[in-house]
Amino acid sequence: MIMVTRLNDSTFAVNPDLIARVHASPDTTLVMVDGASYVVAESLDQIVSAIVAFRARVISHAQSMIGADESPRPVLEPVALRPRGV
Predict the structure, then answer these.
(1) Cβ(54)–Cβ(2) below 8 Å
(2) Any idea what DSSP says for residue 16?
(3) What's the pLDDT tens digit per position in 22-69?
(4) Which InterPro entries does this chain map to (predicted)?
(5) Could you give the dihedral angle defined by the CA atoms of residues 19, 24, 55 and 13, in that order, rounded to the nearest 10 degrees?
(6) If we measure between CA atoms, which residue out of 73, 2, 70 comes closest to residue 22?
(7) Alpha carbon distance 14, 61 (integer Å)
(8) Are 7 and 41 in contact (CB under 8 A)?
(9) HSE on the CB side for 11, CA within 13 Å?
């Protein structure tokens, strides 16, 4: 979740996976996949940065879930396909 601020200074969290688009003209508006829209105080650049930071935290947390005693999963090698009848 990312934290955003309404124009009345109240804050709320938004799931960035549910944001369909963000536009600023002049106020920044989050348009959600369900059609709901929210006007927020953050700039377009701040919203994008918050989403990038959120995704980085998710990836970092997922990587930290691999225990120190576990080795990474082996990379699967591609297999060449043979033509039929060979």
Answers:
(1) yes
(2) G
(3) 999 899 999 999 999 999 999 999 999 999 999 999 988 888 877 655
(4) SwrD-like
(5) -60
(6) 2
(7) 19
(8) yes
(9) 6
pLDDT over 80 at 7, yes or no: yes
Helix or strand run (H / E) with residue 60: helix 44-64
Cα-based torsion angle of the residue sequence 31, 35, 40, 44 in order, rounded to the nearest 10 degrees: 0
How much is the pLDDT for 28?
Answer: 97
Domain ranges across the chain: 2-64
Residues 30, 23, 49, 38, Cα dihedral to 10°:
-20
Task: Identify each DSSP E strand in 1-86 by its residue range.
Answer: 2-5, 11-14, 19-24, 28-32, 37-40
